[in-house]
Structures are given as C-alpha cells and as structure tokens.
User: Which sequence fits this backbone?
C-alpha cells in the first residue's frame, strides 16, 4: 500500500493537504510536532511552526524521464536521434531567397 506523505528529518510525516489549480500538491507537517522539534530552525522558518512541501503532480514523471535519459539506453537513443537529425539536415535542400 502506497502512502501519500513525505517524511521530515525527525521522521515525522508531512501529510497531503490539497492540490491547487496549477497542479501543485501541498504537504504539511503537524505544527504541534514541529513546535518542539530540535531541528525546527534547520527545517523551516515558518511562523506557524509548520513545514510545507510543494510538488507538481507530474514531478515523479519528470524525475523518471531524467533517469531514463541518463541511463545507458537513454544515452544510446539520444545519440541515434542526433545522427538522424544530422542525416535529415544534410538531405534537406537549402532554399535561397
């Protein structure tokens, strides 16, 4: 079972709150936990004693695409794509105006 939470430096959960109109998901900590936390000043400067994390709904997908691109297969695909573009450019007649 997958939980939709983030975990702070002290191991406390930041729970999902809402998604805004721009597609950003907001996760917030329990202010009562943060108020007594020894790492509070390293974690956040929030006056309400609450840590907030904001991530776009596509963020995980973007991270996966980045990992794919940097993999050996991804590098090979990119190299082949570059060669195809060069071939196409060489085959395209230049137009003079």
Assistant:
């Amino acid at each position: 079972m997958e939980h939709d939470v983030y975990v702070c430096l002290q191991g406390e959960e930041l729970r999902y709150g809402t998604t805004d109109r721009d597609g950003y998901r907001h996760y917030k900590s329990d202010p009562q936990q943060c108020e007594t936390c020894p790492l509070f000043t390293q974690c956040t400067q929030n006056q309400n004693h609450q840590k907030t994390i904001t991530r776009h709904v596509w963020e995980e997908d973007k991270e996966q695409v980045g990992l794919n691109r940097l993999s050996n297969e991804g590098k090979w695909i990119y190299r082949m794509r570059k060669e195809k573009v060069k071939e196409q450019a060489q085959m395209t007649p230049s137009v003079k105006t």
Summary: The beta strands are 5-7, 13-19, 24-28, 52-56.
